[in-house]
Write a structure and sequence with these properties.
single chain; alpha+beta; six-stranded mixed β-sheet; four-stranded antiparallel β-sheet; 7 helices; 15 strands
């Protein structure tokens, strides 16, 4: 297996398939050792949200909000990443992945998420991946393989990562008072570094040392171009005034597209409009409800 992995090291995706035992010879396959080798070669990353949230006070609104905690774990070194987010909505989900891959300094071959709506539109044997999430995967060059429904063993490392983050980070930070998500993440970074430097109980060293020594070089390089985080809105009909309404604001398109249906990608600072997969209009995003942008 090591020879094959070395031979095909330049392939972006490597999948191993093994039988537990030969029907002819009866020889059992050392699949635990084989799985270890596959994990060691930049194979897997498991992602999930933790159950416990961290409260923070919104000074402007005078209310208590709760930060969601996103957790990612690499398969071989078990290096843990965690970040506080405003919600589990799509934009925050994508932003967490961008931050996680920057923290790792590279890209694993396979990401295993749970079946939340931001990741999987329709779960099943052949799951329907959220369009924006798939676009993120294509940008970075990884494959999305959601865990099977009601199969926690498919994401056991994510469960372990959530447990560790809850025990060593969330419980500690819930005793403190915060006034922004940024404050939570600043405090979390210190505890996260401490967590990754805690010695293993069953292995020598710690997560950070194991990652630097064995797994870091197996990750693919980060793309030079940054990813535009956005939400896709499909099949929006163009009105007679050759404008299409997007989140309460009207944006113009070429007049030839009147009465046609277009796909819209809403990013943080821009709106892209596509017709038959071709970009036909690009606008600066406006947050004026009921307004119109015409170019």
């Amino acid at each position: 297996l090591q020879e094959k992995l070395h031979k095909y090291k330049n392939r972006p995706l490597k999948i191993g398939s093994f039988t537990a035992c030969s029907n002819v010879t009866g020889i059992q396959t050392p699949y635990h050792q084989l799985a270890k080798i596959m994990h060691q070669n930049g194979g897997f990353c498991f992602v999930d949200f933790a159950g416990q949230r961290i409260p923070w006070t919104d000074s402007d609104a005078g209310t208590t909000q709760y930060a969601e905690i996103f957790v990612g774990v690499l398969g071989y070194s078990q290096l843990v990443f965690a970040v506080a987010l405003r919600s589990q909505q799509l934009e925050d989900w994508l932003d967490a992945h961008v931050r996680m891959l920057a923290y790792f300094g590279g890209v694993p071959q396979l990401l295993v998420p749970d079946n939340l709506k931001s990741a999987v539109t329709t779960p099943g044997k052949v799951p329907d991946i959220n369009h924006s999430y798939q676009e993120l995967a294509e940008h970075y060059g990884f494959v999305i393989e959601p865990a099977r429904v009601r199969r926690p063993q498919d994401k056991s490392l994510a469960e372990i990562g959530v447990l560790l983050v809850t025990r060593w980070i969330t419980v500690v930070l819930r005793r403190q008072q915060f006034f922004s998500i940024a404050d939570i993440n600043s405090a979390m970074q210190v505890l996260l570094d401490q967590l990754n430097q805690r010695p293993f109980k069953r292995y020598e060293g710690n997560r950070r040392e194991r990652f630097e020594a064995h797994e870091k070089t197996t990750l693919a390089e980060l793309p030079l171009k940054t990813f535009d985080i956005g939400r896709w809105i499909h099949q929006q009909k163009v009105n007679r005034d050759y404008h299409v309404f997007v989140l309460g604001h009207a944006y113009s398109v070429p007049y030839e597209l009147t009465s046609q249906c277009v796909d819209v990608k809403v990013c943080q600072s821009k709106v892209e409009i596509y017709f038959q997969h071709k970009l036909v209009a690009l606008h600066v995003r406006s947050f004026v409800t009921g307004g119109a942008t015409t170019e």
